[in-house]
Amino acid sequence: MSKKFACKDIGMDCGFEAQASNEDALMKKIANHARKAHNITSIDAPLAAKVKAAIKEA
After folding, report:
1. pLDDT tens, 6-46?
2. φ, ψ for residue 5 (rounded to 5)?
3. Beta carbons within 8 Å of 36's beta carbon, 6+ residues apart
4. pTM, whole model, 2 decimals?
């Protein structure tokens, strides 16, 4: 099963959604989006934990 994530699931006012075959690939997509759209240049441990908690099975 693939994994999916949406920014809105962590309280962001953002329509970004992504899907990938595994969590590692999805986290790369999320990090790229965070850098480009939200100016988040590094994902710290608390944010990573929040994001990982919001990842769902697709």
Report:
1. 999 999 999 999 999 999 999 999 999 999 999 999 999 99
2. -150, 145
3. none
4. 0.92
- Give the Cα separation of 11 and 50 in Å (integer): 10
Record the tokens describing residue 17, joined without a space. Answer: 């959604």
Enumerate residues 6+ apart whose C-beta is below 8 A from 26. Answer: 3, 4, 5, 18, 19, 20, 55
- What number is the average pLDDT over the span 45-51? 96
Instruction: Supply the DSSP symbol for 9.
Output: G
- Helix (H) or strand (E) holding 24, with range, is helix 23-38
List the domain boundaries for the chain: 3-57
